[in-house]
Amino acid sequence: MKINLLFSIDDQFVEQMKTTLFSIYQNTDASHQFTVYVLQKKLLEQNEAIKSFCTKWKMNYVPLVIGEDSLFEYAPVSSRYPETIYYRLMVHKFLPYSVDKILYLDADILCINDFSDLYQLDLKEYLYAAASHKKLTNMTKMINQVRLKTYEAEGYYNSGVLLINAKKAREEVQAEDIFRFIKENQYNLLLPDQDILNGLYGNKILPIPDEIYNYDVRKNATYDAISMGEWDLDWVSRNSVFLHFCGREKPWEDKYRGRYAALYKHFWYKAKNE
Fold it and tell me: Sorted alphabetically, which keywords does the UniProt record give (predicted)?
């Protein structure tokens, strides 16, 4: 199966992306053909290193260099709303037309099981598939619905794992709509790109289980409570696919002491030294 992966990074997150890719290589069927697309304002300084790394693990690397693209000429841009927030939402404008589907991943994600079932989801008329973290209380969900006027959406979706229906996005996702939404809601946006995703397209997102495809490693106690103790460490090891190291504390930092620190460091060092 041909699998398209998408990242959006700068040179400071190259090693993290390599760790994610190596964990995918180690935990996914070797028969798959991977193409790794990386959104970037200008060609990354480590471009050749990324290419060599991907070649080593039999992945095809394609840099998507935005440059001074006129698409963002009238985009609202500030320190809070850098141009880069638009790249992931408008990626269909830069992908080859032959790409109908692509999986976006944040670079602080670890793959610990095969994600083929996710990639093969039939998105039908949905623009995206994403997970809504169960850490949110009903009150928080209601506040987000009011804040973003997403009353019909099932939840507030995390954009760190996003299966994108590029074919459908070419028809429905327009830069002008995104720019207009920001201007009309600029004082209500807390996480700009994620808020835009939920505010404009929340009712066009296919829900996927976060405990499988976007496990927030900070929320072990919450997952334990929701599952009545079923989703313990053994269950996660067998069933969860993507561990997401959300938040300020990151597993590549020496001070990190989370439950999955050793697991992340294992892949971090392997990706550097294999």
Answer: Glycosyltransferase, Metal-binding, Transferase
